[in-house]
Write a structure and sequence with these properties.
The protein has one domain: Glutaconate Coenzyme A-transferase (3-Layer(aba) Sandwich), CATH 3.40.1080.10. 39% of the residues are buried. It has 217 residues and is of the alpha/beta class. A ten-stranded mixed β-sheet has the order 4-3-2-1-5-8-10-11-12-13, with helices on both faces. A three-stranded mixed β-sheet has the order 7-6-9, with no helix packed on it. The protein is globular, with a radius of gyration of 17 Å. A hairpin with a 2-residue loop joins strand 11 and strand 12. The mean pLDDT is 93. The protein has four helices and 13 strands.
Length: 217
């Protein structure tokens, strides 16, 4: 199965030169460490920053430089800082080319639930609602099953919906799935994982690509 860093590396293959990209809390933030050399990608954070770099080396953290998940970050040449109103103006006006989010659940029609578990304390929705409504492309990276071993790729979300029919692709420890009219399409599978394993762990509609390949990083 893929590690969290390998999942982030897989997402990094989706990046293209000149993109403006927002990375959500959790595994998505690791993508910043795997931007291909020589590629100009501008990372946007909804707390008011354009131009994030990789995570700082231990001992070199600056507590004043954080992302939306309150993790310490680095900046790159040309970085700029602004208020959250300006940041959300960028998001809502469609300036973000790609959003990478974590999720609690994804439905096989592209619905996403990633901001609230009823009855549990949460920090709030953050920028999730705006991002799923405004981004040109949304990719989810998450664990395939929850801590109880239950599938997070479902026929319909059971948790409060963040956005409807907005997710284009899902990356889990088992592989890469596109969202199609027929549900989840397994296009690449992680080394050591069988198709049967994926099928048993997926409750939503699932089809296997006729060109299914093993994922190589």
């Amino acid at each position: 199965m893929l590690s969290k860093d390998q999942m982030a590396q897989t997402i990094a293959r989706e990046l293209r030169d000149g993109m403006y990209v927002n990375l959500g809390i959790g595994i998505p933030t690791l993508v910043a460490n795997y931007i291909p050399g020589g590629m100009q990608v501008v990372l946007q954070s909804e707390n008011g920053l354009l131009g994030m770099g990789p995570f700082p080396q231990p001992g070199h953290e600056d507590a004043d430089l954080i992302n939306a998940g309150k993790q310490t970050i680095t900046t790159v040449a040309g970085s700029s800082f602004f208020d959250s109103a300006t940041s959300f103006g960028m998001i809502r006006s469609g300036k973000v080319d790609l959003t990478v989010l974590g999720a609690m659940e994804v439905a096989d029609n592209g619905d996403i639930a990633n901001w609230k578990i009823p009855g549990k304390m949460v920090k709030g929705m953050g920028g999730a609602m705006d991002l799923v409504a405004s981004a040109k492309n949304i990719i989810v990276v998450m664990q395939h099953v929850n801590k109880a071993g239950q599938s997070k790729l479902l026929p319909a979300c059971t948790l409060p919906i963040t956005g409807k029919a907005c997710v284009k692709k899902v990356v889990t420890e088992f592989g890469v799935f596109s969202i199609t009219a027929q549900g989840f399409l397994l296009e690449e599978i992680a080394p050591g994982v069988s198709v049967e394993t994926v099928q048993n762990a997926t409750l939503g509609r699932l089809s296997i690509s006729p060109t299914l390949s093993q994922l190589h990083l």
